[in-house]
Amino acid sequence: MAENAEDLDHIEELNINSESVQILTFTLDDEVYGADIVQIQEVLEYRKVTRVPRTPDFLLGVINLRGHVVPVIDLRKQFNMNQSEITVNTCIVIVDVMLDGEKIPLGLLADAVKEVIELPTKQLSPPPRIGTRIDTRYIRGIGKDHDDFIIILDLPQVIGQESLQDVYQAVSSKETQSTDEDE
Description:
Strand order of the largest sheet: 8-1-2-10-9
Number of strands: 10
CATH superfamily: CheA-289, Domain 4
CATH class: Mainly Beta
Radius of gyration: 17 Å
Helix content: 10-25%
Distance between the termini: 59 Å
Mean pLDDT: 80
Shape: globular
């Protein structure tokens, strides 16, 4: 499916030494998205998210995950989708992202998690140049499972290093305030 060397390089980033890749699939606004399972830490049921003032719109807030403050990104806001109500299926996908050479946890709000699937890398296509609801720079590739197309996200691009640093600075100040208040 991939046609040129640049497209192949983009797809091979998913899992360089493998003939297949495992993808965690989830839904947003009735579309199926996915992320390479190596980036996924865990999936949590939705829980109360604490809003942090003066943060980017796409930052829903923070949660306490085993004593660590973890920011939660609202993917619908990041992708300029309509907002929806929280349901019993709403979940937070905890992923690992790199910031200043350090792996840090980040929560992604999803409408529902579907399953983990294995896709042969030769069945992955590069991001389409037009025709998607989200910015193509957020897309690492497109896969197909039965009748579903899966938009495989490029997680570092979805958030962006600059935005991620802003989020963690805001979270750090919130964490410092909480510690100061506790004393």
